[in-house]
Each structure stands twice: as structure tokens, then as C-alpha cells.
Amino acid sequence: MGVYTSPHLVSVCERVTVDGEPMSEEAFAAWTERLQGEIERLDASFFEATTAIAFADLAARGVDIAVIEVGLGGRLDATNVITPLASVVTKIALEHTDYLGPTLAGIAREKAGIAKPDVPFVTGEPNPEIRRVLVEEAHARGARPIVVVDTRRPPPLGARLGLKGPHQWHNAWVALAALNALPAPFGPVGEDIPAGFAAATIAGRFDVRGGAAAGSSTSRTTPMGWRCSSRRCARSARRARCTRSWASATTRNGGRCSNACCRKSTDWC
After folding, report:
1. pLDDT tens by residue, 185-206
2. pTM score, two decimals?
């Protein structure tokens, strides 16, 4: 099974895995050299180039099935050159508005651009108005069946997810519906939560390490996940804002930050 996701934490090779093993640096270099002419001819972006490299590597390694994550939006994304076994939009949020537009409805239309004729389209969007936009766009593109998932269902008794956060149950219900939309031999898998969901991990994604003390940095949830309550994180955020203010102000104020949280030009909050 192949996976293509972004961004990476340490190495670009993390973006492309087969059965959990990342692409080797040698393979990445070899595919880059082989595709370099086309990448330069098309003036491809970094994401477009890595997508081409990823698809080439996954094909060369003979994967039976792959999970391909869209980079940005959907309709015009580099990954949208494939015809998938199922298209999935979990939910819509205001993100990348400079590219996708300032409204949830507009972003929904861009995201639903991954829908393909006669390919199942699955969404767990809870907002009825935004869900209607997704369904209408998918229908206009010929997707079928269109599967709307009720993600408000409580977790089954005794079921467990490897990924942290109550919002992950929203994603789990969508993932289960996507598996059940797949043709044999990949699906369907039934109505029970697969055991593999308990083993799912994403490095750095609410990845708690170091014992109970590390867990204290996550407090209450927001609509999109967790918010950190650590005072250290709050100080880091202030320092980041202060540093940006200082960088933009030095040319105007003779090297002195105009941000009130700075005592002098080189101070962090």
C-alpha cells in the first residue's frame, strides 16, 4: 500500500511511503534526475515536481492501492490527474483563502473538483449548506454514488483510535465510509471500526511523547482540533509575533522594534 502526503517533517522522502517504508534518498535522486528535463520544461513547482516523483516511485514499486493526499484545494491540484477508486472530502474550513477564495462555499467547490465520473464521492461535511455545495458539485461532475457521512455518531463501545483528539472520530467515520465505497478486493469492510484504526499514527500530529507531563500541553478542543494551553507555547507565539514585528520595523525605526512588547531592538518577549 502506498501513501503520498505533505508536508514532511525531516526528509522529503517521508512524503512517499510503501507499507510504511519511506522512499529512499537514492530513489528520490534517481527520479529527480530522470524527470529533471520535464520539470524544468514545464517550470513545475516544488509540489508538482514531488507529485510526479511520487507517482513514478509508487508505480515502480508496484503498489496495489495508494492513498493520495491533495496538496491545496483539489480542482487545480497536481494530484488531480489521477482517476481514483474513491474521492474523499472530510470537511471544509477557511484555509488558503488567497488561492481558494474567501468563502466556505467557494472553497467547497474547489475541493469537490476532485470528483470524477462514475467514481464514489464521500464527504463528512457537517454544515448542511456547505454539504449541499459539495454534493451538487460532485453530482455535476458525474460522481456516483455520493456518500454523505454522519460524523456525529458516538464512538462504538470499546473502539479505539491511534490518532489523538475527539475530532479524529469525525475522520474515522469518513475513512470507514471511504473503505466501504472501494471495490473488491479493497472493500467494502463492513460497519465495524477496523482494528487497524487503533494503530494509525502520524508523526508530529498530536504525537504525545515523554509521559504524562507531555500530555498537559493539550487542554480543550476547538472545532478543528486541539489548542495548546502551555505557557511556554504562549510565550513562543508572542516571541514569533515580536520577531516578525522587529524584522519589518527595523528599516523604518532605525533598528528599533515598534512593537510594545519589545524593550529594545534585540529583545524577545
Report:
1. 999 999 999 999 999 998 888 8
2. 0.78
